């Protein structure tokens, strides 16, 4: 089964994607709303209860204010070599709404 993959990147003119542990910009209310809308949108043929996944690195996860973590309505997958992986064998769907799935590589994230 193939899946559609949408890549969303915000970069400065010099290809910077972060500054001092945060975003290089402030006041991105419209852009954040667009990101949420785009990452929550499901194809018409998606099964009932389906969710999109948002794959991010550990530093991006850490830069999201705690009150917004995990990103609601989406499966949050964090790629990190330095944190223990999420034990998906004992997880229930409700667990995915409380904490991110932690994997060690992009390949593992895509396989999840």
UniProtKB/TrEMBL annotation:
Q: Respond yes or no to whether keyword NADP is given for this record.
A: yes
State if Cell membrane is listed as a keyword: no
Domain DHFR, chain residue ranges per copy: 4-112
Please give an example of a GO cellular component term from this record: mitochondrion
Alphabetically, which GO biological process terms does the record hold?
A: dihydrofolate metabolic process; folic acid metabolic process; one-carbon metabolic process; tetrahydrofolate biosynthetic process
Q: Which InterPro entries does UniProt cross-reference here?
A: DHFR, DHFR-like_dom_sf, DHFR_CS, DHFR_dom
**Which pathway does this polypeptide act in?**
Cofactor biosynthesis; tetrahydrofolate biosynthesis; 5,6,7,8-tetrahydrofolate from 7,8-dihydrofolate: step 1/1
**Catalytic activity, EC:** 1.5.1.3
Example GO molecular function: NADP binding
- What Pfam families does this protein map onto? DHFR_1
EC primary class: oxidoreductase
Q: What keywords sit in the KW lines?
A: NADP, One-carbon metabolism, Oxidoreductase
What family does the database annotate?
Belongs to the dihydrofolate reductase family.
Q: Which protein are we looking at?
A: Dihydrofolate reductase
Q: Which organism is it from?
A: Colletotrichum noveboracense
